[in-house]
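check these tokens.
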Amino acid sequence: MNTLMLRMVSALMPFLERTGVDTYQLYQILRIKLMMDDRRPSVMFAGRRKENATGKTSNPWLVSIGTVVMGILTGFVLIAFKGPLIAQTVYFSMFMVLMAMTLIADFTSVLLDVRDQYILLPRPVDDRTLTISRILHISVYVFRLALLQGLGGLVIIGFMDGLPAVPLFLIQLVLITFLSILLVNVVYLVMMHTVSPEKFKDIISYFQIVFSVVIFGCYYLLPRVIDFTSLVQIDLTQKVWAYFLPPVWIASLNEVLIHPSRATLLTSLLAILGITVPVAGLWLVAKVLAPGFNKRLAIAATSDGNASAPSVPTPTGNTQTKPSLVNKLANWLAPDPVENAGFRITSKLAARIREFKIKVYPALAYVPIYFLYFGLNGKGSMDERFDKIQSGSSYIFLVYLSTFVLSSILQNISYSEKFKPAWVYYALPVTQPGKILSGMYKAVVTLYYLPYCFIIGLVGVVIWGPKVINDIILASVIGMIYGLLMALFMVKGLPFSKPVLLKQSGGRVVSSLLITGLIGAVGFGHYLLSRWETVIWILIIPAVAVYWLMLYYYKRQGWDSIELEEF
């Protein structure tokens, strides 16, 4: 497979040589990179290993079969839509989104990897050659995925438009994949030219978060709010905005070459764009954006994002650190020194570690998406379904659903790719690590869960009225009890002290399901009692008492309940 891919890349060598790329160096670098990837035990790149305690790795054939099945399901879009351009435009839009998600989720670390510079920088390899080698390295793996994903559409288009459409469709897959790669890389390279290295890494992280939320929301909500029957016969040639969409350019190739009778001058121009824009994009990357890439990459890799707290002058002329709101909350909620340290460590690292934010922050948006997905399920117009939500007691379900945020945080709070500095936990004379865990849990609840419940409460008061206040308070307290149960049975490590790979070894699924089922039963009981306002107010008192009692015993945990790591 690598030999075939290298031969395909060789076809671009004459063009790349004109842009200033050393094609001999490019070929050798790419060949070595592919050889190294084949020698790794894992299939994908950094952080994608899924090894369990027995050392077994995930089967690449199962992943390939799953990708082919997904491609077949996506290919049915080609049958559903009948209007000119619309079928292939929708298909290639979905295809392009999948490729972009793959690039952002799996290959950002490859583009921003600086380890190969230790070998290549002392050699006479220029920025253009190294940058293009990174992009082509990524392209090889994305093209493999694209071929598997497009296999279903390839078969369907052969039955619909005949065998001559099959090689053209294969070319269209290559073009849309290359466009996806170029768009993501152009955005990355432009940002590296315009923003500081630290801000660049922050933007990439938040872009990953927003993109995953948008895709998740579109997948769940669009079928609920859009009538797709009105889109089946839409004519994109009459829509000016469609002329600026790359999938329309690629779909126009089919109109011009397979259905020339319905092709127009406009579709011919769009088809030309579909061929020329990928080539022009490669020239833009190699000639304009690539110079200086390695220098900026090295700066971005060495910046750690440790910004010092603002300082204020003292009367003696010295400076001292201004106490932040987090430190004030830590001093108030965790007066014990060890617990206070656990609170501060958790809050600072959670705000600093990008991998943690990428995994946790999307859950903040998943809750309202899930709520709308279940709430809008039913018959009737959109206004009628919204009126049904407002007239019912579904706000209780919304608050209990917010425990998903707490669960997501607790499942990731013990893991970090840079876990080795956690040796300090075990070097200090701490006799009760439960105090560190208690500070950690208080930080999670204070900085994430309670503010989130407060926002949900404000929305609930606006939509359902002040009558929901007691229900929101009770559900929030029960949610904190749920979090403590999860922490007791699921969190067996100190904050950010365990390697990420161990997370896959699991083994506590049954406990998690039992805890979730218990809280679900309590939530259903709350729903049945919600008609009696006084009862709900009274139940808040024992719920708070249970929470503080559980927190007291959680704080008393010893080292025997902590999973220790070797450093």
User: Anything to note?
Assistant: The radius of gyration is 28 Å. Confidence is low (pLDDT under 50) at residues 41-58, 305-312. Residues 461 and 468 are 6 Å apart (CA to CA).
